[in-house]
Specification:
The chain has 256 residues and is α+β, with helices and mostly antiparallel strands. 36% of the residues lie in helices and 25% in strands. The chain has five helices and nine strands.
């Protein structure tokens, strides 16, 4: 009786081992965890291309961005492409990896202190801070994407002619380091965009005035530090605020 049990147990172990070997990722393919990390950064790359279309509209610029991801993980495009093909043929494993990728991205959004767009204040007060994330951030040379984006869709459109003042303070900028900041507002078929290059430490401010005849449906933009130069330590940004002023009000709150 004991012999029968031993044979049955051995058979079960062989069966489990066979199933595991069938689902195991081959050695020449990125493991599930490796694929998860690479795909997470590739999703960020795609998002960055969408945000900065003018910067990455050429195939060369896009290839450079993707190559920065491969370099971070010590792989090349050929290995990534062959891994995509293998995972595409093993969709059950791919879906598990992709679900973890989405979880990683969502966690990073939460860590940024993001808020739901539909709770962004649309008050008619003379001034209100609508910045949707934490008031500080850190840029690191170890990060592939040193870009902080924001995209605010108020539940009620902001009043016509609203002005937006984007303020922040930089620490740790070195020579030739010039972060780029964009602030944009969408007013129906009209988009107003303001770009600024930061060339020194300290408090910086930019003011975007919108068209006085159209309500504001969306406010969006980014703070970006090119991470190709990895000689710096870290760059810090604090005192982040995005204040909306009503049309016809000065920045000090007095009537024009």
């Amino acid at each position: 009786m004991a012999r029968v049990f031993q044979i049955s147990l051995w058979g079960v172990l062989m069966l489990v081992g066979g199933l595991l070997s069938c689902s195991k990722v081959p050695n020449e393919i990125l493991s599930e965890r490796e694929m998860q990390r690479v795909m997470t950064d590739m999703l960020k790359a795609e998002a960055l291309i969408g945000i900065e279309y003018d910067t990455y509209k050429s195939d060369t610029a896009k290839a450079y961005l993707y190559e920065s991801v491969f370099k971070k993980y010590g792989i090349d495009k050929a290995l990534y492409d062959s891994s995509l093909v293998w995972y595409g043929r093993n969709l059950d494993i791919y879906m598990k990896v992709y679900e973890r990728v989405l979880a990683d991205v969502n966690k990073q959004i939460v860590d940024l202190g993001d808020v739901q767009a539909d709770v962004s204040p649309a008050s008619n007060q003379d001034s209100v801070n609508i910045w949707p994330r934490r008031a500080f951030l850190t840029f690191s040379p170890r990060s592939v994407f040193n870009t902080q984006t924001f995209d605010i869709h108020p539940n009620i459109n902001y009043p016509s002619g609203s002005r937006f003042v984007f303020g922040m303070r930089f620490w740790g900028l070195e020579k030739d380091m010039k972060p780029r900041v964009r602030l944009a507002a969408e007013q129906g078929d009209t988009i107003v965009i303001l770009d600024k290059v930061i060339d020194r430490d300290g408090y910086q401010e930019m003011t975007l005035s919108t068209v006085p005849t159209k309500r504001v449906k969306r406010v969006y933009g980014y703070i970006r530090l090119d991470s190709r130069d990895s000689s710096y330590f870290k760059v810090y940004v604090d005192s982040l605020s995005l204040t909306r002023y009503n049309y016809g009000r000065t920045l000090s709150g007095e009537d024009k």
